[in-house]
């Protein structure tokens, strides 16, 4: 019998072994469909090498607020300068409304930011950090698997969120964006550090939820064709335990929190 909220070291080692097993299962060509830890390919094939430069827009959506940023990458200084940013709240009715309402709200906030920075005459490339479990098809195509963190917008699960953002911007018609790179927040974290330290190959988030990414050898990523080089893998380890594998260590409080959440049974590890 374990004391609530305290697990002995042997039990922790056992849980660690379960997580490792699920990470390997998520990489498998035939096992990833039933894996609780999804190990999603990101199609990011390398960390920054210091030659990047230019002006970019960034959107960061992963909680009850989202950020819009204008950043400048300076090759000579090997650093990323934040020129300015804006934080926009997402009201509860939008978090639980339709996908069109959500992306129209994002497009409206981006429009206000571009106005404030006198950037509407420019067409800048955009990095879109969308911190929900997605099946990445290409660098600019990402299908939402499921909502987490209190979101439950209709008409988005199973659809390409980059396309939904572009459609919302087109509906406005008062500005345009360039190419879009879609990344998870863990990937963005790893890449931003990797610009300063090229030995950085792991990104981890501990916030509203928890997640991690890392650079994996392509020969181990069985669900993607090709064995040459490496690719960043978004583990989505918040799903660890969604198959019941952590039931033996859940407390009565864990069960109540899960059952009363907006997405019961999802992201057990968070």
From TrEMBL:
Report the catalytic activity.
Answer: D-glucose + ATP = D-glucose 6-phosphate + ADP + H(+); a D-hexose + ATP = a D-hexose 6-phosphate + ADP + H(+)
UniProt xrefs under Pfam families = Hexokinase_1, Hexokinase_2
The Hexokinase N-terminal domain is annotated at: 5-195
Which superkingdom, per the lineage? Answer: Eukaryota
* The protein's annotated pathway: Carbohydrate degradation; glycolysis; D-glyceraldehyde 3-phosphate and glycerone phosphate from D-glucose: step 1/4; Carbohydrate metabolism; hexose metabolism
Cellular-component GO terms for this entry: cytosol; mitochondrion
Q: Which PANTHER family match?
A: HEXOKINASE, PHOSPHOTRANSFERASE
Q: Which family does the record claim for this protein?
A: Belongs to the hexokinase family.
The identity of this protein, by name, is Phosphotransferase
Task: Please tell me the species this chain comes from.
Answer: Seriola lalandi dorsalis
């Amino acid at each position: 019998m374990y004391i609530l909220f305290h697990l002995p070291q042997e039990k922790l080692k056992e849980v660690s072994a379960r997580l490792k097993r699920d990470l390997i299962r998520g990489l498998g060509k035939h096992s990833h469909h039933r894996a609780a830890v999804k190990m999603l390919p990101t199609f990011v094939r390398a960390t920054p090498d210091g030659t990047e430069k230019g002006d970019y827009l960034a959107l960061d959506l992963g909680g009850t607020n989202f950020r819009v940023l204008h950043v400048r990458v300076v090759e000579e200084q090997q650093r990323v300068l934040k020129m300015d940013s804006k934080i926009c709240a997402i009201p509860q009715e939008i978090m639980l409304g339709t996908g069109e309402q959500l992306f129209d709200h994002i497009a409206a906030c981006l429009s206000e930011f571009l106005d404030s920075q006198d950037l509407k005459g420019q067409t800048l490339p955009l990095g879109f950090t969308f911190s929900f479990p997605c099946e990445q098809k290409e660098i600019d195509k990402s299908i939402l698997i499921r909502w987490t963190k209190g979101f439950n917008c209709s008409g988005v699960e199973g659809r390409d969120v980059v396309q939904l953002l572009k459609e919302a911007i087109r509906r406005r018609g008062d500005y345009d964006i360039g190419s879009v790179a879609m990344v998870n927040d863990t990937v963005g974290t790893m890449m931003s550090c990797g610009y300063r330290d090229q030995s950085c190959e792991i990104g981890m988030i501990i916030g509203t939820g928890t997640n991690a990414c890392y650079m994996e050898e392509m020969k181990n990523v069985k669900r993607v064709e090709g064995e040459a080089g490496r690719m960043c893998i978004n583990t989505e380890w918040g799903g660890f335990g969604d198959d019941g594998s952590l039931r033996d260590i859940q407390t009565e409080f864990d069960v109540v929190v899960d059952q009363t959440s907006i997405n019961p049974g999802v992201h057990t590890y968070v």
